[in-house]
Amino acid sequence: MTLKDAARDVRKNAHAPYSNFKVGAAIRTASGTVYQGCNVENVAYPEGTCAEAGAIAAMCAAGEREIAEVYVIAECPAPVPPCGGCRQKIAEFAAGDVVVTLATTDGIEKSMTVADLLPGAFDASFMDNS
Ligand code: THU
Questions:
Q1: Could you read off the pLDDT of 6-28 as tens digits, one per residue?
Q2: pLDDT tens profile 57-105
Q3: Among 74, 79, 93, 122, whose Cα sits 20 to 30 Å from the Cα of 27?
Q4: Homologous superfamily of the 3-127 domain (CATH)
Q5: Protein residue with least CA distance to atom 1, ligand 1
Q6: Helix, coil or strand: residue 36
Q7: Which DSSP symbol is given to 86?
Q8: CB-CB neighbours of 79 under 10 Å
Q9: Ligand 1 shell residues, CB under 6 Å
Q10: Any idea of the CA torsion for 107, 21, 13, 88, to the nearest 10 degrees?
Q11: Is the pTM of this model over 0.90?
Q12: Contact criterion met (CB below 8 Å) for 81 and 113
């Protein structure tokens, strides 16, 4: 299954009763395994958990930490941009040159790198103050 198909399929399982905006995300890791995530909203936190965060959680739960490629899809007029928090979460597990493809369900795609998505990212190296 392609990363695109994995993201498109999991999007169907999104739980988005408050925004009515379903998002699917798929991550391929360095091992070649694909992890999927969809957004999940709830009444106390209607903004919910993003699809990208769900895919990252699945990856970590499986013991993996190295993202090789990301695909995110939603039904919108232009390719869905990951929120700021998800950009930081992706950058935690991906090199700057990793490709993130943003897509619409109508088939418009925009490929960016992690460094494009989050220029000047904060990372653990900045905490080296010894
Ligand atoms: N959302 C995602 O899951 N990923 C994105 O890249 C953008 C936004 C979700 C969060 C929330 O459930 C809904 O879309 C509206 O913000």
A1: 999 999 999 999 999 999 999 99
A2: 999 999 999 999 999 999 999 999 999 999 999 999 999 999 999 999 9
A3: 122
A4: Cytidine Deaminase, domain 2 (3.40.140.10)
A5: 50
A6: strand
A7: H
A8: 17
A9: 16, 19, 21, 23, 39, 41, 47-48, 50-52, 72, 80, 82-83, 86
A10: 80
A11: yes
A12: no
In one-letter notation, the amino acid at residue 82 is P
CA distances (Å), 47 to each of 21, 31, 51, 75, in order? 10, 32, 12, 17
Total length of the chain:
130
CA distance readout (Å), 78 to 20, 81, 98, 114, 123:
17, 9, 21, 19, 29
> Token digits for 119?
């220029």
SS3 call for 13: coil
Domain locations in the chain?
3-127
Any idea which residue has 């905490």 for tokens? 127
Identify each DSSP E strand in the chain by its residue range: 23-29, 34-38, 67-74, 94-104, 109-113
Give the tokens for residue 100. Answer: 């993130």
Closest C-alpha residue for ligand 1 atom 16: 47
